[in-house]
Sequence to fold (267 residues):
Amino acid sequence: MIKQPTTHQNQLLAVLPAPVLKRLLPHLELVSLARDEVLYEAGRPLQHVFFPTTAIASILYISENGSSDELAMVGNEGLIGICVLMGTNCTNDDAIVQNAGYAYRLKASILKQELDRAGGRRSGALQNLLLRYSQALLAHMGQTAVCNRHHSVEKQLCRRLLLTLDRIDGNELDMTQESIANMLGVRREGITEAAGKLQRAGLINYHRGHITILDREKLEANACECYRTVKKEYDRLLADEPANLSSMPPLAANLVYISDSKRKAMR
Fold:
């Protein structure tokens, strides 16, 4: 039996105080999102924001020549449309569904009203939570740029597979080599070679756009530190009882590339 999606499947909605969630519930619309569905486009006003439960979307920058690079991915940990939180209603990137599933849709105007009602950053539970999420997402984007610049296609593929696994149930992924290449901004041949290496090593099984993760532990060991850095930042900022942020390093520290080997040498 397929379980009916609930708001608690989205990590942001799950930790909202009951009074805040109660005000939002009448306006949250459960919607089914199809693969390749465009949720918003660069330069166009956002009418809605989305809290995914089982769907996953890619935040993409698409250049004038049509090539694309994935800046980040958003699943059940987050919100699609953070520009609304920043006081605007459009952005310079696109949000496209990569994994079909469900999300709760909310009118951008309703979110703005709730943020205004909350009374500012210090007194608004929703705004505090979304600001922490925004910091995690910015760290995610920064680390993606670092990874694409410094790490091999194989390492990038491991990172992308692990981040997707964190946002779904099970170990089965529907991802074509072409879609992965578009997200990572690399040639399809590079993905074919990298996926082949992982399959021969017994980490994955790939067949006609369907990937089965056979050994997650080895996949994590084969990934670069970028996966662990991004996961740690989400865990730190989206905990039910977040740590005292004043004791944490600034966000900029997460965007400076220092490899594991360099860190060891600096000790």
